[in-house]
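Forum > Structural Biology > Help requests

Title: Can anyone predict the 3D structure of Anaphase-promoting complex subunit 4 WD40 domain-containing protein?

Hi all, first post here. I have the sequence for Anaphase-promoting complex subunit 4 WD40 domain-containing protein but no way to get a structure on my laptop. I'd be grateful if someone could post the C-alpha cells.
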Amino acid sequence: MYKESNGCLNFAEYNLNLGSIACGGSNGLLNSIRVALDPKVMRPLSYKLTSNQTLEGHQFTVLQCCWNEYTQRLTTFNANGVIVDYVVGQNETLYENMVNEKKQDPPIRVAWNRLGTRIGLVYADGLVMIGSEDGGPAFVRQFDFQLASFEWAPDDLLILGTAEGTVKVFDMDGEHQLDVYLPCLEAVELEHALAKRDYREEIVRMSYWCPILMSQLLQNRREENEQKRRDEEKERNSLGISIFSNYRPVPEPNETEKESEPVQPVPPDRPRFMVAYSTGVIQLMRNLVDREPIVVRLPNLTLSDARWSPNGAFLAVCGSFSQQTGVHQCLYFLSAYGQIIGFHQQPGSPFNTVSWEATGYRIAISSGGRLIIGQLRPQYKWGSIEGTLVYVYQNEEPFYYTVMFFDYETGEKTTKTVKYFENLACYKEHCVVIFREEDMSYHCDLCNSIGTAMDYVIVNIQPKFVQVNGVAAVIASEDRYFIWYFNLPKPDTFLGEKMEVKGESGEYVLAEQQRPVEYGTKRLLGSKDQINSMCIGDTFFLIALRSGGIYRVNLSDGAITHKFAVAGTVEAMKLNCDFTKLAVTKVLDSAPLHLYIYDFMSDGALLQKSFTTEKTLIMDFQWDTNNPNMIAYKTNKELPGEIFVYDGASSLKQGVANGFIYSFENLVVTSVNLDLIMFNPENPSKNSRVDTMIKAKSDVETMLYHGRLTEAMEYAEKSPHDELWSMIAAYSVRNHHYDTAEHAFVKLQDYAGLQFVKKLRNISEIGLRNAEILAYEEKLEEAREMFVLCDRKDLAIEMYKELDDPHQVSELLKQDNNEEQKIKAYRNLAEIFYEEMDWDESLKYFKKCHDIHMQIDCLVRANQFGKLEELVRNLDDDSEHLEFIGDIFSSRGLCDQAIECYLKCGLPKKAFDTCVELHELQKAQFIAESHQLEGVEGVLAKHAEETVGENDENSVTKITTVGLYMKAGRHLEAAQIAFEVIAKDRKSKLMPLHDLKECYVLGAILVENHRQGVQELKKMEKHRLLTDALSDESGLTVEQTRILENTWKGAEAFHFMMLAWNHFFNGKYCFFYIPEILSLPERIQDALHTSVLLADYQEYLDPVEIHQMIALAAANCGQFQICSRAMMWLEAYEGFSDDERQAMKDLSFELFSKCPPVNPPNSKMRCLECEGEMNRYDFQCPGCQFKLPICMATGKPILENTSWVCRRCKHHVNKYEIKKWTYCPLCHDTEDFKL
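Reply #1:
Sure, ran it for you. C-alpha cells for Anaphase-promoting complex subunit 4 WD40 domain-containing protein below:
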C-alpha cells in the first residue's frame, strides 16, 4: 500500500501494542495513522486507512520519533531542537503532554528504555541527557568525543556509538564499562581505503533486541474486561439463571498469559545486539562482550536503516543499491545469524526508515513523500500430498516443531512432533520430514498422508535442499548431496511388496563429481561453486549453482551427465509433468525473480530458452499436473497476487488469488493462504484454500450454461484442452447430443465414452437413458431411484455390482425372493469386513450365508470362545465341524470345551488323549472308565511311579507325589497321601499344632476340589453316559470313603485345641487372630466350651491332654460335675503309672471335699428345638437329639437362628463374630468370603 504525503517523510514508526503508525517529515508534518487489515484475511490491497490524526506542536521538519511502549507515549523532535511528548488517551488518541521549546541543535537519537522509566537524548557534540518519566533530568554528561548513535542495554547500560564508528558502554553514573569489540572495522574494504584515506565508518543504527512489554493501557483494559466478566457471572449466579444458559466461565489467565513475552523460544546463541554502518556493514552480537560476532557485508549498498523484527529472529535493512543501470531502492531481510533470506528492490525515492508491525507480517517504509506498507511472505516449510496439506510450525516448547497433516476433504488433522526440524519435501502420496538428532546427524522420515513413517535414513549432510520423487529422495547441502533410495510399499498390493530399486543410496561430493568446464572465455562452473537450488525428475535431478549454471545428475549413480550454461543466480526451479521443460526464477540484471522456461533439446543434452517474463516480480509458479505445456505463475505486475497462465504460446491473466499455489490441474489453480493458517496452526480452516478457474474453462462453462454448444465446440477447437472437451462431452451426454458427445470423446481418445454413447443410442426408453446418464455422472442415488421408478431394479443391482458396492446390493435385495443372489451379496459383504478385520460384522454376514467354517474362523480371530461354545451346542452330533472346533479348544488349553466337542461327535479316545495332554488326568480316568477304553488303565499310576518310585516311603517324596496328583486333577488320591503323611507326623509329635492344622486343611480342600470336579463333569455330560461313573462313591476304596465322610474333622480337632489354649492362656499360645481380650470369667467359660468339644476328636488328639484341659477349665468355671467326670477318666486311664494314678485320686479327694461335684443352678438353658432343659456346656439336646452348630471363631454353640457359613468348608460362624474377621477362621478362605 502506498500513502502519498504533501511533504517528505523522514520516519515511520509502528506502535507494537496498538498497531498505529507515527510518521513525520518536512514542514512540521506529524501524523498518527491506523491501517485496518484483518490479519486472518491477509488479502492484497485490502489495506484501508481508518484513522489519520494530525499532531500539532512542530513548525519545522520533524526528524525522528520514539514510542514508549509501556506507558504509551510518543516523543518527537524537529530540526530546531524542539522536543514534543505526546500521550495516548483512553480512546487511543494522542494528546500533547510535554514540550521542550529550548531551541538548540537537534539530538541525533532519542530512545526510551525497556520499562519506559528513562529517556535518553544524545547530541552529536557528545552531550548525553537522561531524563525521568516526569521530564526531570536524571543524568547529564558531556563526553569528549563526538557521537553518532545511542541505544539502551537491557540492564539500563548506555551504549554510545561514536562518529569514528566505535561503540562504548557506560553505566548510569557515567562510568566507562567497556569498548565493544568490532572486528568489522578492522577489515575495511580496499576500494574505500584507496578512494579516501580519512574514510570513517558511520553508524546508522544500533539496536539491542528485547521482548516488548504489554502496555499499561492494554493491561487496564484486560483487567476491566475480566472484572466485568466476574460481575456478570456474579449477577447471573445471584439471579439463578446460569443453569438455564449456555454460559461457560472463562478460566482466569495465569501470570504467563498476562505477560506479553513472545511465545517462541529464543535460542541462547542467537544474536541480540546489532550495529549497522552506512557502508552496508552489519555486526551481530550475542551480547556486548561477544568475542565472535557475525559480520555481514552488503556490497554496493548505502544503508539508511536496520531494525529487528518483534520476535528478534530477523532483520530488515533498507538503503540504496548502486548499479550500472542506476540507483535502486532495496530492502534486505536477514536472519538473526546474518543469512540473506529475502530481497526486494524498486526504483523511486530513497528508503529512509523501516519499521515492523507487531505480528511481523507487515512493515512500514518511509520513502520520499510516500508511506509504504508492505506485506511479507514468509518462506514456510510446506507441501501437499494426496489432497493433504503438510506444513510445519514451531511449538512453545523450545526447539520443538509440529508437522501438521491436514486433509482438506475430510477436515482430519494428524500431527507429528519433532525436535530440531530442518526441512520438508513432498511428492504425490508421500513426503520426507528431516530433523536433527542430538549427535548432529540428520534423521529423514518418509511419511504418508497421515504422518506415519514408512522408512527412514540417517545422514550427515545438512539438509539445506531436499527433493523427492516416487523412488528416491535427494538431500543436499551447499557442497555435497546424498541420494536415498527408500523402500516404499506398492499402492496396489495388500501385502506391501517393495518397489524395484534401480540404484543404491550414497553420498557424493560436488567437487569430486564436477569437472572444470569453460563456456567461451568465462569459466562459469568451477570447483568452488555452491549449490543454490535443486529439482528432481524421474531418473535424474538438477542442481543450480550460486555462480550460475545447472548440472544434470543421474539418480542411479550420482554422476553429473550434462552441464548447462545458465546466466544469473537461480532461486527456484521446477520440471514439468513429463520432464521435458524446466521453469526457473532467477536474479539477473538487477531484476529479481524473473521466470524463464527452457526446453530440453537433443535428448536432454541442451537447454533452449523458450519463454521469459521481463520486469515482473514472480511470487510463485506451478506446472500443470497433466499438460506439459501449461504453467501458472503469480506476479505483482499490476495487482499483488495476479495469476497468469502460459500455455506454450501466450501468457494470459486469469485472476487474483491470495496465498501460495497449491496445485494446477484441470484448468483450475488452487491456492492456499498459509498466512491465515499460521495465525492458528493447530486449527486450520478449509476456507484457506481457494480455487481459481482460468479464463478458458470459465468461458466454456458460461457457453454451456447458456446452451451455446456450437460456440463451445469452436472455442475448444481453437484452444484445445482435455478438460474443455470433458466438459463438452458431459454436457452433450446430459442433453442427449450424441453426435457432439462422440466427437468430444474422440478428441479425448476415450473409448469407454464412445461405447457408453453407443449404449445410450440403443436404449429406447427415455427414463432408462436418464438413469444411465446419472450413473455415468456418478449420481448413484438419483440413478437408483430412476431405475426403480422404471421398474428395473435389476439394473440398479447390476450398477452397484459393477461399482463393487455390496452394501447397496444387499439393501436392494432385502425384499427380493432370490435367495441365491442374497447369499452371494451377503458373502461379498462378509468378505469385505473380513479383509478389514472387522470380525463382528463379518461374522454377522457369514451367519446369513450359512458359512459355518468362516464363522468359526471369525470367532477364533476375535477370541470369542464363549460364542464358539454356543455354536457347538447348536451343531448336530454328526457335524463335520465338531472335531475341528475341538482341536481349536484343545490347542488353546480349553479342556472342558474340547471334551464336549469330541464326545458329541463320538471321539472318546481323542477326548481321553486331550485330557492326558492337558494334565486333566481325573477327567481322563472317568472318560476311560465310562467308555471302556482299552490300553489306558493305570495312566496316572504309571506316571506317578515313573516320577517318584513305586515303594518310596519318604515323606518328602510323598509330598512331591501330592503335587503331581494335584496337577493331574486327581485330588482325592492327593488328599489320601496327604492325610497319610499327616498321620505319621502327628504320632511323632514333632510338628507344631498350627502346621498340623494347615496340612489337614490342605487335605480337606483337595477333597472339596474332588467333589467340585465331579459336579462339573456331571454338568458337562449332556448324554448321561457318565452318570454312574461320576457318582461320589463309585469305585472308591474304604480309606477314600472314610476320607470323604471325615473331610474336615482333623482340621477341626487342631483348630479347637489351639482355640481352647488361646482362651485359657489369654492368647499367649496364639496362632491366629484374636479379635479382643475378654474378661477372666468369660475367657475361662469359652475355654471350657471349646475343651468339651475336643472329646469328640480323640482319634486325632491325645485324650489325656483333652481331659486335663476339660478338668482344669471346669474347675476354674465352677462346673464341678464336668470336672468330676474328667477326673474320673484320668484316674481310670491305664497309661498312667500307679504313682500318677494315686496323685490324681488325692487331687480329686482334696478338690471335691471342698466343692461337691455338682453344677451350679445357672448352668441350664432351653433347647432351641424342643424347649427342653439342657446343660449349657452340652452341644446336643438329650431329649430331641438336636445338635447345636458350633462357631468356628469362638468354639461356642450358636444360639441364634442365622449364622454365616463358609462356602468352601461349610462351617458356621456367629453372625456377630464374623464382622471381626476377614477370612474363614477354619480354612482361611478369602476369595469366597462374603459378609
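Residues 400 and 1213 are 66 Å apart (CA to CA). The chain has 32 helices and 61 strands.
Shout if anything looks off.
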